[in-house]
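Invent a record, attention on tokens:
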Amino acid sequence: MSTERPFGRALCAMITPFTATGELDLDVAREHAAHLVAEGCDGLVLNGTTGESPTTSDDEKAALIRAVREAVGPGPAVVAGVGTPDTRHTVELARQAEAAGADGLLVVTPYYSRPPQAAVEAHFLRVADATGLPVMLYDIPGRTGTRVEPETMLRLAAHPRIVAVKDCAYDLLGSAKVIARTSLAYYSGCEELNLPLYAVGGAGYVSTVANVVPRQLRAVLDAFDAGDTAGAARLNALTLPLSELMTASGLPGTVTAKALLGDFVREPLQPADREAVDGLRSAYEDLVAAEDLVAYGESAQSKT
């Protein structure tokens, strides 16, 4: 893995499958993980927001890492979410993830207590010092209540194991400034910013929507890397209706992803209602059909 993209480009924030009775379903997790990698995901982020980490036990988190590692083999990156509001617990989860076979750690800003920036910085440094794994910081102030300010990011970038950021801060200017001044790999955590962040030097994305359309999202980055910026913009536009329904319709991304995958959520989350499911399925089918039409059109044009 390159220093610029330590976990690859296209990462899926993977769901945690459950049975109808609410038990962890490791068989489905293995199948889903293998499918995502086969469809173009460079890595999988487990036990994050989409993975319903607030409602899974420490033992379940470790079991999921081991199962996915077994399913995908040593090649794809397996990044484990270990963030909690408690520094001591986060360190414990980091060490557990390392022992279970994770390649990296996703560490969210401590939430609810709203610590000041010096405390946020100290928290991340404690976790980064706890294992030998590279760390992806998770900046999502809309959920945690606390921003990782750009100046804090600049200081944290000096740590040799803090190598990446999952960026949900909705501050493209701030992110671009940190990208310009550090070697931190910035991964978009908001689908609507996948292409804009990539265009200013981002490393890729960590996507909930990739649970259902991994190939279509990766195609946007492939087109951009090939120098076809107009094609990348066109493909990106095709993904927006589904992304909006899945992440900005008032339902959590976990709920919408599982609605399309036919999986079960844990309380306090509730499944999507029939109207929402129908809308999601329609947008999904439109994206698949449109993507096929674009591919057909490009293929036909190349033969003329």
